[in-house]
Structure formats: structure tokens, C-alpha cells
Amino acid sequence: MTAGPLLGLISGRLTAAAVLIAAFGGSLLVSAGLWHWLGPRMNQDRWIRPNYRGQPIVAVSGLVLLAASAIVVAITTGVIASLPEGDLEWAAYVPDQLALVARSPDSATIAGGIAALVLLVGFGWLGYRDDTRATPDGHHAASGFAGHVRRSLRQRALTTGMVKALGGGCVALVGVQIAQWGDPAKARYFAGTNPGDWFDPVPHLLGLGADPDAMWSLAALVRGAVIVALAANLLNLLDRAPGRATKAAAAWWLVGLVPAVLLATGATRPFDLGPEAANWAVWSAAAAGAAIGLLRSEFAELHMQGDTGVNPLGALLAMATVATYPPTVEWVVLGLLAVLNVASERWSFSRIIDAVPPLRWLDRLGSPYRDY
pLDDT (tens digit, 0 to 9) for every residue of the chain, 372 residues total? Predict the structure, then answer.
């Protein structure tokens, strides 16, 4: 490798790492600051629920995570889109017949940023709706997916859990579609060349172009959406003790996504990482940083994120995984998430964690109210 490409490679990695660190640290500080300011103002009856010890605390601090994450996602999207081409390397797909309207780094970045915001807001709203419709003792009328299905059939009306499940699936489909196949630049091109045909840009915006080489696959779309929905629900299942969901999310981000930001900006891609890997590592850093910014006060049992926070956190981490890794890895992740979600219908994660000493120690680490 000559000096020029080597310097470019180093520059790209440093730039990506700098944006990643800034997104994580900025989101952490914003969420901690917002909680410090908003926490006392959130002590309202509609937001208070008992925690695992029966102590009344704020149960929707996930609103702070949503605000901090959305702010940092919007800022970093603008920053990344404004970087000189090559700073965060793009290996964008360019079909020969569409070379003039190829997916550009800035338009792809903006589409990804919009997808991240859709996932945050969509899953956050569904989670908030579920959190605020719990009974005053903090419980729902049904638990588990099977329980919600049975109750919905008995009362001939959807429970809040079923609304969240169905709505989450729809939000996941929209988010994955925008992130991986929606291309505003291509839609604008077709709108400009065919001003009389208002329908023509729509298939291209949705990734349904007629060209046989289009990067669209119904199987890939559904697979990605299922991964996002299952991950959001998995973090919800883990959110039964202070900091548990945040610790799981931090481990996912550190092990599965942080290395990708370096691998995705190099000439060698051992896992054939997608071109948006660096971007999504940054956007998932915004959610992970916001959750960790709330961790200290969550350990003090002043609040819990609730579905409002952990659902969008899981969705963003999953979307980052989908955008980063090839289909083989996605299938493995999908299988693991499916097994864990199904297992939760039969076994309690809390009991399993308590029965395994290393997991029990990690689960209680940092919490002053729980014995190690």
C-alpha cells in the first residue's frame, strides 16, 4: 500500500472514530443533563409506577433517552453528510444503467438518519403508550405475546401489548425500507426527468425499481424488520431490574458494532461489512450513550426507562446490525433473537440470571439496593 492510500485509510478511520466517540459522549452528557433538569418535573401521577421492590418511581424516563438520541442522531447525520467523500468510506452500489443517479453518500446518509429517527419515535411512542396504560400497580392486563393474543381474542379488542407488537412490526418495516433501499436522490432524479408522471418516482424511492440489479429483496426486507422488532421486544423482556437492559445494550454495541466502524472504513472487509456500517455504528452510539447517561440515576432507583426507552434502544441496535453485516450473520442473529423471545414465554430471564453466578454478579453490578 502506497503512502497516499495509507494516509487516506488512517484519516478515514480517525474521522469515523472521532464521530463515533463524539456521538456516544455527546448523547451521554445530553441525557444525563436532561434527566437532571427534567427528573424533578416528571414526578407526576401518570408517570409513577412501582419498581421491582414496590417503590414508586418515574417509569418513563425513556422520554429522556428519546430526546437525547434524536438530537444527536440529527446532528451527526448532518455532520457525516457534510464530510468530504471518502472520509467515511462508501462502497455504494452503482448499476451501470443508473450510474448518473447512483446513491450518493450524502443522500444515503440522510435516508439512514431519517430511518433512525423513525425507529426512535415510532418504537418510543408505542412503548410510551404501553407504559402509561399499565395499571396503577405497574402491571398490564396480560403478559407475554401469547397472553396478549389470548386476551385480545377473548375481549375481541387489541390489548396495548398487541398494539405495540403489530405497530412495532410496521415501524420496523418502514425503518428498514428507508435505511437500506430508500434513495431520495434517485427519486428526485426520476421526478425531474418525468415531471408528468407522479407515480414513477415512488417505486424507486421504495427500492422497487424495474432494473434487475436493484438492491431490493422482499426476504431481506422482512428479515431485517423481524430482527428489529424482536430486538426491541428482547430488551423489553430484560428490563426487569435496574440497568439490566442498558448493560445488555452496551455489550451488544461494544462487541457487535464498535469494531465495525473501523472495519468498515478500511480496504479489507473480513465480514463483508455493508457501506453504512460506520454511519449506523454512530447512530446506535447515540442511543447507547443516552442509556448509559441515565445509568447512575437508574441504579439509584430514581426512575426506570420503561418500554418508552428500551424498545427504541433495541430497535436502533438491531437496525445497525442489519445495516452492518451480511445476510449470513443476519440469519444467525434472527435465530438467536427468535429463540430468546420464544424462551421468555416459558422461562423467566430473572430466574435464569439469578441461577448463574457470573450473570448474577454482572446483573447486580452498580446497584446499591441488590445483594451480589
Answer: 444 443 344 455 667 778 888 999 999 999 999 999 998 899 888 899 988 888 899 999 999 999 999 999 999 988 888 776 544 443 333 333 333 334 455 677 888 899 999 999 999 999 998 888 765 544 455 455 555 555 655 666 566 666 777 888 899 999 988 887 654 444 444 445 555 555 555 555 454 554 433 444 677 888 899 999 999 999 999 998 899 999 999 999 999 888 876 665 443 333 445 556 778 888 999 999 999 999 999 999 999 999 999 999 999 999 999 888 888 888 999 999 999 998 988 888 889 999 999 999 999 998 888 776
Q: Which three cell numbers stand for residue 200?
A: 414513477
DSSP strand pairing (48-50 vs 56-58): antiparallel
Residue showing cell 453504512: 276
Decide: 312 and 127 in contact? Cβ < 8 Å: yes
| Residues forming a β-bridge with 49 | 57
d(CA 372, CA 362): 9
Query: What's the rounded Cα separation, in Å, for the pair 213 and 94?
Result: 10
Cα–Cα distance measured from residue 343 to residue 359, given in angstroms and rounded to the nearest whole number? 17
Residue ranges in the chain assigned as alpha helix (H): 3-38, 62-82, 105-132, 144-155, 160-180, 184-193, 201-205, 218-238, 244-252, 258-263, 277-293, 295-299, 306-324, 327-344, 349-355, 357-364
| Residue 178 CA from chain centroid, whole number | 14
pTM for the predicted model, two decimal places = 0.80
Q: Rounded to an integer, what distance in angstroms lies between the CA atom of residue 154 and that of residue 148?
A: 10
Cell numbers at residue 319, please? 437496525
CB-CB contact of 72 with 290 (8 Å): yes
Q: Which residue, 200, 160, 209, is CA-closest to 181?
A: 209
Query: What phi, psi does 354 have (nearest 5°)?
Result: -65, -25
**Scanning the structure block, which residue is given the C-alpha cell 421504495?**
206
Query: What does the alpha-carbon distance between residue 184 and residue 190 come to, in Å, rounded to a whole number?
Result: 10
Query: Of 319, 63, 302, which Cα lies nearest the Cα of 172?
Result: 319
